[in-house]
Amino acid sequence: MRPTDSELEILSVLWEKGPSTVREVHDVLSQTKDAGYTTTLKLMQIMHEKSLLQRDASSKTHIYTAAVSQEKTQQQLLEKMIDTVFGGSASQLVMQALGQHSSDKEELNKIKAYLADIEKQEKNNRK
């Protein structure tokens, strides 16, 4: 199941902060967007029903945690974007991202190292 943009914002807070109350999530979200507490509460309840969040109701204040991993969610969204926006071409995505984003030396070195690892794995798979 792919989360909506609003659900992704909530998941991002939970991935970063860990288990949190609705108030804690709302406080973080309200720093960048104008959303009411009840809207955040309702969204989190819906996300719980959709199994995107887990809820601990053992105390008066419910504690929510992400039920989906950040890595798996990123992978699903990226696969969908590559298929729909870039016609299935991962290289088109990479070239667009690098062309539109200014990368520092450290980031470029990480990209180069990752590409070198991929090439090494491909060579080992051919043997």
TrEMBL record:
Any one Gene Ontology BP term: negative regulation of DNA-templated transcription
Pfam family, one: Penicillinase_R
GO molecular function, one term: DNA binding
Superkingdom, natural source: Bacteria
UniProt keywords, alphabetically: DNA-binding, Transcription, Transcription regulation
Family: Belongs to the BlaI transcriptional regulatory family.
Protein name, per record: BlaI/MecI/CopY family transcriptional regulator
Species per Swiss-Prot/TrEMBL record: Chitinophaga silvatica
